[in-house]
């Protein structure tokens, strides 16, 4: 990347639900705010992608051996497209259930191979509101809209369970968005804006669950140092002092600036 | 930075108005969405900072000579704190007007020295709603709130003019947020939530002005390539083809993936 920085990176890898996470009220942007001056949130969301296609770009983005500093954490959020049904409008995106789990395992292994200390967080796909999908298709295509659903909540649930199961097998954290969302009455319209993608409320659920998982895995923003002094710690008459106070020279050696972050999280 | 990426970077350097730009409706998050899959938005906002303090961190973040790939663009958005009045509550942040301009020039020169082709975009501070500031102070401190304003719109305006003037002298683009916002009736409460920081509407003004400036300087998102194929370009039966179609091997050589972006914008 282009800058010498002291901040660790948290990468968001996924499909459109990740790609769109910087829209108004999006979970990615909210995460960037939660980790303000602590970590960089790097969005790598690819609308329409399934795990099979994700595997094709993985080696481009993170070749192994990896020359740079590996991210501190990565969220892997696929399944909504893999679960598209065969013989329906979105069948191009379909990935068979066993292959979905296999691909996810490959993706996780890739990151672990790149950096044994990286925190890998799996996120299972959200539930599907079939009525919402149908209304959305009609709003776009009217009478020409597809008659049969391209996704069902039940099938997507089988993908979510494989994701949860894989996390258990690999002993990594997982957020079961499919189950979590359905625990709230009216989840269909409250959390999903077109039966598949998230409303602001749905984004808030993902944001809060990701925060909780990162906190639980030792990457809480509250425990991370600011990259530079808080303005209240700066002496107006001698501002340079605050910039030297953490054992840091002003020689441009950024690793020395916040040694705790550099050693723990990068 | 930690990843091998093909996306150019757009850095947002500034004070709290930049630091908070990933909150709900924030201009930084909106920019990340506008450049989705085209560029990475890197936020480097430091609440309370003035140009004097910014100079103290510049060499830490972007040492010269710079070892990595320089950002494609940087927005420099200071002045709201430099314009704090002497002898008032926020006087620690005050920077004399001539020094503000001098410091800004140093910051711009630093980036130009790092990379002659970098697009440097100056942003002048927003106007100040003195009544809004007073109400905000009273909401926090009641009768103990400061009696005299710590900033005035008139004084901040003199800083904005120096910023605009410097941009003309250095022949770089500038957004005069101070002037632009005051062209809308009711700007005081419409664009500012506490007399100083931006509402969602205020963020939308900055977002749209930054987009316009980037477009005008040859960095329009519409003209930049996606980092990987759009899902509609992927053949379900032979997905690997789309990942090889731009003269790219699958060898992990990311620079070869999107040669136009690599040569024009990084």
TrEMBL record, chains A, B:
The keyword Hydrolase applies. Transmembrane segments: none annotated. Keywords: Hydrolase. Pfam families: Lipase_GDSL. It comes from Rhynchospora pubera. This is GDSL esterase/lipase. It comes from the Eukaryota. GO terms for molecular function: hydrolase activity, acting on ester bonds. Belongs to the 'GDSL' lipolytic enzyme family.
């Amino acid at each position: 990347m282009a800058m010498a920085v002291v901040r660790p990176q948290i990468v968001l890898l996924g499909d459109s639900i990740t790609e769109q996470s910087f829209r108004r009220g999006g979970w990615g942007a909210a995460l960037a705010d939660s980790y303000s001056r602590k970590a960089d949130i790097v969005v790598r969301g690819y609308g329409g992608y399934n795990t099979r296609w994700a595997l094709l770009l993985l080696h481009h983005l993170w070749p192994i051996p990896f020359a740079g500093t590996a991210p501190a954490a990565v969220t892997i959020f696929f399944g909504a497209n893999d679960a598209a049904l065969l013989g329906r409008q979105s069948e191009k995106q379909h990935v068979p259930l066993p292959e979905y789990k296999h691909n996810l395992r490959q993706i996780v292994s890739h990151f672990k191979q790149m950096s044994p200390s990286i925190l890998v967080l799996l996120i299972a796909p959200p539930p599907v509101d079939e009525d919402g999908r149908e209304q959305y298709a009609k709003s776009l295509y009217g009478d020409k809209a597809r008659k049969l659903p391209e996704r069902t909540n039940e099938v997507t649930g089988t993908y979510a369970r494989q994701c949860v199961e894989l996390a258990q097998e690999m002993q990594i954290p997982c957020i079961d968005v499919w189950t979590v969302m359905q625990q709230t009455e009216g989840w269909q319209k409250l959390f999903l804006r077109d039966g598949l993608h998230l409303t602001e409320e749905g984004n808030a659920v993902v944001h809060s669950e990701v925060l909780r998982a990162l906190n639980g895995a030792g990457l809480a923003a509250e425990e991370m140092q600011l990259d530079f002094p808080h303005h209240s710690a700066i002496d107006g008459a001698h501002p340079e002092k605050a910039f030297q106070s953490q054992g840091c020279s002003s020689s441009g050696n950024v690793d020395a600036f916040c040694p705790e972050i550099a050693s723990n999280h990068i």
